[in-house]
Amino acid sequence: ICQRPRWDSRLQLAPDHKNYKKNEEVMLSCSEGFQPSFTHVKCSSKDKNIRPGKPKHREVWLGRNSGGHWTPLQSSVSCFEVLQVDPKAVEISSTSIKLNWTCRVPDTCQEMRAMCRLAEPSSPPCEADEVQGEERLLGQEGTFICPLLQPFTSYSVTISLSTSTILFTWLFRTEETVPDKPEKLWLDPNTGSLKWQALPSCKGEIIGYQLNITARHTQDGGFLETQRLRLSTSVTEHPLPEHGPGSSYVVTMRGLTAAGAGPASLWRFQANSSDTPPHPLDFGCHSVSDISPSQGTAVLPLRPIARPTKAATELQLIVVTTHNGTVVEDACLGEPQPFNASRQPSTYVAAVLNLTGATDFVLGDGTRGQGYHNAALRPGWDYTALLRLVSRSQQGEKFTCVCYSFSV
């Protein structure tokens, strides 16, 4: 007689008794997706002589191997996975899932089928199409790929036998990607604030917004002001800078996920109107009359930039060797390179100022300082000088520029 073996707790014995008679055959099985190391065992016994005349019976279990022969079990019987998938080797992108599989029991892994399905029903506005079809898996090992999936969406991957026995099932979520561009932004005429509809987290969790506001004013010498802001995901409005009649605004907005910034949407506003201006308005530049080609200088009638900010500021005088509006605008927003006497850059910082009142500044007098050089001007060249105020805060940065245009 043999007692019920204390093997893997997941084993199911048929018949299931506390004790088994000698040569009583027992069938072993495991839960779905697992298989025992032996499917049939039987009780046996073997006499072992302790001393002459007093034999002792020891329990012995035999297992039937693949050839149908009964052999003594050298270790306990356990349940193991029929199909193995290495979780560390699973490759998940925003549009696909790829996994490698290995069948440990080739005779069992016949007619395997693999499929991907949406793990949760989709709902507006984040609608995802169901994955159609399934794939037949052949051989002892291979690769299964779920293509054409939606980003940031949960899918189940199931591999089963033709008898509907599930060998493997797992829940995956595809990676995030950048969000779609915002589609709904408007100017509230009552509050003067920009408002927008929050982006849904269809392609990734929305973690914020990048908002750029560029204001141009053409009257009284004009100016250009750009704010670069990063707003939290809970913010859905921001005040538009007030610059009065004659001002135009260009606004770009992008949504942000952990994967980065999405494509930008662009809107144009005219002061005191929600209509799009008929054409982009260039900001006007002050004229410069006191120019000395022989000395390489020009006298700029500088005035303090209005609308001071509480944030830390720096007032720079930037020189651009062109009248091209696009280049000048980029210079207002960019970081000019240090001046190089052997190869004069097209944009450079001529001075760092502390301007408290109106003053006549001599551009090109040759003075130097840390990070700037008021280099002599060259005859025959076009110049645009930008008086730039830079303000930075935790929320973002703002560049305000007043320009002076002249030729030597």
TrEMBL record:
<dbReference type="InterPro" id="IPR003961">
    <property type="entry name" value="FN3_dom"/>
</dbReference>
<keyword id="KW-1015">Disulfide bond</keyword>
<dbReference type="InterPro" id="IPR013783">
    <property type="entry name" value="Ig-like_fold"/>
</dbReference>
<feature type="domain" description="Fibronectin type-III">
    <location>
        <begin position="178"/>
        <end position="279"/>
    </location>
</feature>
<keyword id="KW-0677">Repeat</keyword>
<dbReference type="InterPro" id="IPR036116">
    <property type="entry name" value="FN3_sf"/>
</dbReference>
<dbReference type="InterPro" id="IPR051622">
    <property type="entry name" value="R-tyr_protein_phosphatases"/>
</dbReference>
<protein>
    <submittedName>
        <fullName>PTPRU phosphatase</fullName>
    </submittedName>
</protein>
